[in-house]
Amino acid sequence: MKKLPLFLLLSILLVFSSNAQEVSFEEYDLSNGLHVILHKDNTAPIVVTSIAYHVGAKDEDPERTGFAHFFEHLLFEGTKNIGRGEWDKIVSSKGGRNNATTNDDRTYYYEVFPSNALETGLWLESERLLHPVIEQVGVDTQNEVVKEEKRLRVDNRPYGNLLAEIKKNLFVEHPYRWSTIGSMEHLDAATLEEFIAFNNKFYIPNNAALIIAGDIDIPSTKKMIQDYFGPIPKGAKIEHSFPKEKPITQEFKATAYDTNIQIPAIVACYRTPSFTTRDARVLDMISTYLSNGNSSKLYKKLVDDKKMALAVQAVNLSQEDYGIYAILALPLGETSLDALVMEFDEEIQKLQTELISEKDHKKLLNQFENQFVNSNATLEGVAGSLANYYLLYGDTSLINTEIDLYRSITREEIRDVAKKHLGSNQRLLLEYLPKTENQ
């Protein structure tokens, strides 16, 4: 039997030893505005150092889309004290790993280390914040990296542009209307000065949260945080204010084409409230009820029983300002897209006029209990949750209490929220079709 490395083995043990116990944390602000969240867990000698910036694709100039995602890559280029190409070498030399993610609302960097390398993680993230080197050679290098990522994950991937097509049709005023990866033409046209200005505006301590989770000593960790991050100057205050969308009051249709597919898709899309609202949590439950698992209502009906669809999914894509509720299906055989929409409507109408069964309601509650436990089953999950709940929800304690919101959702609320947000007059119907030579 192949032996697992000690670091990996400890990570696995940590997962299996985790449970739904309350996540303890301490939070405070440095004088420069950096918010700090500390979570001590001595289960295994592992530590996560992470920093979340309240900047995403929605903060971009409409003529310079893709900047936030581009910076996810660019800020690994190096700093005043870390040479180009050295970042990953430093992390791996300490037995760690690192990554970053960007969405429309925030950018998140993290490292996972053996706990004796905590100071290395703090030094790396303070260097990224205080001494980034933004030069033309790095911009040119990462431009090619991002273009290749777009080719692989979007342009050459079946249904890869589906979400982008939904967004550009569903949003008219709000910057959610463009994709996170942005426009390659915009990135090509940007000057070095524009990249430097974007960094100076958004990657500042008072627009960020530092999260340390794992096997730490609180007093010594606080001292290191003060030493590494305390001297970083505070930046100018950022106002996150965006245009509001007018309500959708009449169904409208759109068509998009994809050269990478042979089977069309139909998507019913609704613009829904922020993930901070109670209604968004109810919509989470509705999407789970409709299509999560082989016994869910839409899957069993369209895929198993009527054999009208190859696949069907309902998903609530909640974000900080708005959400997208989407029901998607791929037709089987001669099934028309219109026929699938009729089946969507039938199930939604049932939700709007009838109460789901007590058995189904109990099943939903059990599924969300399980999701809650799994989301905090690793230190990485805990750190990411702490970051999001503070930065985007404005309430770090939701890491322990949000499950109570789901537990309190009633069958009547499910009916009422379906009626409020999923009316046929409130949606976009998007036909996503194979592209032929004539189109």
Automatic annotation (TrEMBL):
Pfam families named in the record: Peptidase_M16, Peptidase_M16_C
Note the Gene3D superfamilies from the entry: Metalloenzyme, LuxS/M16 peptidase-like
Sequence intervals crossing the membrane: none
Give GO MF terms, alphabetically: metal ion binding; metallopeptidase activity
The reply to whether Cytoplasm figures as a keyword in the UniProt entry is no
List UniProt keywords, sorted A-Z. Answer: Hydrolase, Metalloprotease, Protease, Signal, Zinc
Keyword Zinc on this protein? yes
What residues does the Peptidase M16 N-terminal domain cover?
36-158
Indicate the segments forming the Peptidase M16 C-terminal domain, all copies: 190-367
Give the GO terms filed under biological process for this record. Answer: proteolysis
Signal peptide residues are 1-20
What family does the Swiss-Prot or TrEMBL record give for this protein? Belongs to the peptidase M16 family.
Q: What name is this protein filed under?
A: Insulinase family protein
